[in-house]
Amino acid sequence: MTDSSDYIVDLQQITFRRGSRLIFDGVDIRIPRGKVTGIMGPSGCGKTTLLRLIGAQLRPDSGAILVNGENIPELGREQLFAARQHMGMLFQSGALFTDLSVFENVAFPLRVHTQLSEDMIRDLVLLKLQAVGLRGARELMPDELSGGMKRRVALARAIALDPQLMMYDEPFVGQDPISMGVLVRLIRLLNDAMGLTSIVVSHDLAETASIADYLYVVGDGQVLGHGTPEELMNSDKPRIRQFMQGEPDGPVPFHYQAPDYLSDLLHREQK
Amino acid sequence: MSVMSRIALLGRAGLDTISALGRSGVFLFNALLGRTRFGNSFTLLLKQLYAVGVLSLAIIIVSGLFIGMVLALQGYNILVGYGSEQAVGQMVALTLLRELGPVVTALLFAGRAGSALTAEIGLMKATEQLSSMEMIGVDPLKYVIAPRLWAGFISMPLLSMIFCVVGIWGGALVAVDWLGVYSGSYWSNMQNSVEFFDDVLNGVVKAVVFAFVVTWIAVFQGYDCEPTSEGISRATTRTVVYASLSVLGLDFILTALMF
What we know:
The complex is a heterodimer of chains A (271) and B (259). Chain A has 271 residues and is an alpha/beta fold. Chain A contains 10 helices and 10 strands.
């Protein structure tokens, strides 16, 4: 697989366990270059784990994770840190460095990875902050920002080194409608303007479907289905339909596994 | 609980301990060895020397002063019964240099700086700051851990020396200025009996060993903690308990070897 191949990330037969729990069981996912790919699924199905596997913060039990043709789990520590310079990740919490100002947070990757002059760093930081609309907030500290602003600063920091691959971990969780709209627009805009490839992990169906070119639905350690948002909306697979239509009951039952309701009520000696 | 499951629990605890020891060894190795790619590592070290060392000065100086004063007072009360209160300077100096200087500094350091290191690193882990640093392509072991380790290694022996100096001066304050021991005999008895290699240097060696152990435990507990509020609080407690016990245990071994 070469650098110019159609897929920037290629997960092949990934198996991953956490303790005795099987999170992924032979999963194949391919992320097309230059597109926004959504990875959706119910909470706790391992979506964030997937991003951490691609970023090699976790190692799979078996399978290959090719990013630009390099098998990420096999890289040494030094090579891995070099490979990560081409990836950007937006964490759910923003994960800004609390002892640094907004400006210094965005400047951090530039300072540690480049030999640019102070003037150049300033210009680049302002450029990135302008892209997320927070140029005026550069002197503030992270604890003076709202949740949505934190995420935008973290986004500016993640794109500071112009990565090829941007990963978003639940970018829409806990956002008010305005911040949500801003983030949705930004993800699409940055992807197209900077020629990125974006992976958006989310369970917010409407937002993700509105910006994604391609969707994967994962659950039960498997890929339940994949396709364009329209294809998935019209899918006749019951699991996909339940998720895409947001039906409370279906193949994923409303009730957690329990004994029969009537006999449970009648046997009072059991707690 | 059956006998077998008790044995299994014991085995599990043993395995956990050995695996934690292994992790902490690899952690130390990765943090300290290999080149640092970041040009500003000296600035990072300086910042930590301030946080870990300079900010611990107050507690070290105040404790050193009082411990020196108490030693002189207790020593004088005992020695005066034998008519040898002139030896109080010698007693204060030897006690501080050989034992109390390094040991009490290490215990105070574990409580003041060690717990702060653990909590800070643990909170950075819980708020995904360490993960995001990794994803930016910066190794937190080199950027966050290494400067804190070096700052501890460098500052604790210095703090221990300051502790001894202030303690000896506090002893003089009580013995000479208050209790009326002749100042010439306080200082000259001390000068005659304290050997540079046997006493001063051995004390410094102890301080260096304690600095290494306390700082290692503190940063490892922070880095290895469960990233929740209970996890951080448990890790902070563990730092103080493990560091204090290790210091006291090692002190016995070192004393047996040295003197």
